[in-house]
């Protein structure tokens, strides 16, 4: 199927998703919303459309494993509405989400589907300080009904176009910004150069102070709204357009207030000079349509008039202030900086516009700074903090958010009290935190000197997410399952193999994916073999191979097995090689610098978890052997007496208790014995075996 055909199939779907997420945000009174669609392999949910907060602000939430204890995944899998009123409820019910996004917000996630089939999930987010009630029942019903209508529309779209209704991580989601008042107004016009008439839209009329209902479409009437000295330039623009086919740019001054009547009878020479009338400037752009064999079209000038006075007035007012002021996009990139900020930070505006402050200025390159911005955006709550510009200039940064970005203010301040410096982080206003202190640690205070650029919050998210999931995994198999469920959807891989080192050789302990025998050839290989899976482990350096050609050039003759890209991650625990984790991609995958840093960080977590699980498995095998030695394999058969024993250890999933029992025939009867093994203080209190003898 050609790319254009695929684009036509998904165009209708994109329109449906964009319209639905906007309605969801408006109906819930939220500031952001997202729609996720199931992936082709049904392992993950893929971000397909957003409104308000951009996807980049939420770090790793563009791909969510369907098995994750995350609200949108639970809504998709269970078919239920997941409503979290505030950060407290989020922490109680979804601690992994609270760890990854420790901000004051509420959320509601609902499934999207039709006819018993679920296509994805819809979620909205709103600002929610502790104690918030969240959405009303009416709002939740409205959100669920909206999701159901979206599901029905998507199903009908599939019937018409054949669209499989699947998300593709390689495709950027549809983004709809939050509504805002425009800083620039634009009006459209069509000027008939032959007849001297001008057809304009309502915005054009408003810019020139004309009533659209009474405007007579005469150019003379429009000219009457101009500064007298600009009227000749206005008419010259028409002559230039007729001769050259376009007007590149022409600035005109327009009278403030209501327009003149028909006929433009205000063209007296020198009118407006010294009369106290106000004028504002607009910019006129236009061109003559280049349509062959159409003489009528060449007699028209079509174009736009742009009125940017609101933006210019705001910028002028900001430039008069002595405080440093700046504007950030929702992603955190600088879109404006006034002269006072340039002086306070010793920067040039053109050097930082388009960049994040924490990337442009080394002394702001601290995760705490990015945390403050993300906290303000996600919780929609103003925040402030202190930071020291080397060598000893202390500044207070204040961030004031709305869904379209952040306005920042910087003012000089005195050095914090030395004792306070030692007692607590130097923050003027603490960042919003969930009410439960266990939700997330307070971020470190900004440092005046940073030796190297630290990991960004996107990296921290993946580490927190996998680390949180691994804490619940006990056995080796459970660890492997968690790694597969987290890594494959997060990075778009299709194959995963885990090897452990035993007696100096590689042993395959886990494999998942549709390619049978993926990397089976590595099983049993010695560590000194010149292979990617062994060399990455002995060197301790991850290996990223982006194409079959690169693999063949570096390691001739190695089986490829239908995979196009590989990531070989060394698993080293406590300085000892523990194994290798291999990710495979069916299609060519370009590993970005972020991909490489995240995977390298995660490899350390996986290694520690596997080492812990290996020790657990060994101890479990030993404990189980000891228990089997203590417990009787069968009870003796006794005359006139039937005995039955039931052994119920209270340790979940281990089937080991540490208690023992026996039935011992004696010369004068029978002895029923119950005992407890000493030295098991770490074991929970035993549940006594149940016996029946009759």
Automatic annotation (TrEMBL):
Residues 405-448 are annotated as: Disordered. It comes from the Bacteria. Signal peptide: none annotated. Residues 310-355 form the PAS domain. Residues 428-446 have a biased composition (Pro residues). Keywords: Hydrolase. InterPro entries: Bact_Sigma-Reg, GAF, GAF-like_dom_sf, PAS, PAS-like_dom_sf, PAS_4, PPM-type-like_dom_sf. The keyword Hydrolase applies. PANTHER family: STAGE II SPORULATION PROTEIN E, STAGE II SPORULATION PROTEIN E-RELATED. This is GAF domain-containing protein. It comes from Streptomyces endophytica.
